[in-house]
Here is the input.
Amino acid sequence: MSSKKLRRAIDYLEKGAVDPARHVLESVIQQEPNNAQAHYLLCGVALAKQDLRSACRHALDAASAQHGLDELGLDIVHVLIRLGECQAARSLLGQNDTDHFNSALPIARLASAYQLLHMHHDALKVISKAQAFIQLTPDQLYYSAIQMNFCGQIAESVKILASLADTGYGVGRAYLILARSYNPDDYPDFLGLLAKRLITMPPASEHAAAILFAQFHELHRLGRHQNAWRALCAANTIMHRLLGYDAAREQRIVTSLKTSFAELARVHRPAPVKASPVPIFIVGLPRSGTTLLERLLTNHSDVASAGELTDFGKQLRWAANRLGASLLDEPLIEAIAQIDCTALGQRYMQQASWHARNKGCFVDKQPANFWLLGLIRLALPQAKIIHLRRAPLDVCFSNYKAMFGDSYEYSYDLASLAAHYVHHCDLMNYWRRSLQGAFLDVDYEDLVRDTAGSMRRILDYCQLPLDPACLDATRNAAPVATLSSSQVRKPIHTQSIEEWQPYASELSGLRLAIEQARH
Here is the structure.
């Protein structure tokens, strides 16, 4: 009987008839309280109604009723991760048994779940185990190469990417990763390969943009700066047209965030502080040195790496009961003044503290958390917050020559870069005035020129004893799931300071826009 009702509910949902589907599913639950599929579908109903907390409740009920990682189990795991219920997702993943997976899709979804939880070694194990009983598709080989790169197996990653490149693989990002990691002696005509592959990519697509970014990296390495700049501009033009950027909307968000936070701060009453583990948030603009600092800091014997978590933003949405895909939007900001900061902090610790792995501190290195810095302070008064700063032209150029996919749409246009940089500085200045010394500013230039002095200052702020291991990023073997995954495994250097100089004339407009806006 329940199977017929479930099919009827699914028919309703496919037609957009949410309320009739909900009535049918609730009748199933009355008869079978542990029907995992009914709970999972009710989660979808709640999401359709923009009721985030109800969606979380139904997803948790589905996880409790589910046994094993069949197709439904994987569906439940992914919705749990999407909703920020990471502990329940980890528990369900503990039932992992890939022996019965005999096709590419479930293996890819299982590996993806581990990656989303920043469990990169586990993701790589799933792909490696799959090789024993299926032939990996090119996309799975590409995915395994990414995980190898994250886990520090650079040579193995390059080998796979090179073999894919030789076959004419159609994912542009593969060539960009190869450009950042390969040994030039092994590819004497890498530019020729990129030119051939660019012709095969859909024009004005993200794949074509990735090839052009790869061309820039290679031409820049060879000192052919005029050609490099043309490739870089072409790559960014494609991505800017695909994504766009609304500077006026971002300014409105900055303004309304200040207002909502001020209202919240007036009524907030601090709660008792849990002593351990202590979260250490590293924030700042992308490419400002956040990954380097994380590598140094997590070399400390009492500090664990959590990676670039999205947990605080997800728990903020739970606290406000506002569904959304972006970190901040207008409906969420409007609700901020009414949230329970104590509950927000408790939820965050419940979902994220497992990353500490029995150590006293864990680092949450999500650069974009600078938007939420005031909320972090109210919700987690025990937390340490470190803000990385970098010279304007250095950080903006480093953003412009990166490829972030759809994560940082401002980075693909020089005028947009200038606007976002100014908005970032404006908000950080507001946090400094409002929070009165609640976070530590660290300059990238100081970190690379005087690593010992900077780390003494940082460890003192974090109330941690000195540890010589914190001076050598190359000793850190933890995964790095960022664009810096190859770079930060090398000894600390100052080569990235004023790397924009060969393009000074092309960047003069950016420099002027930043200077005018700041004065």
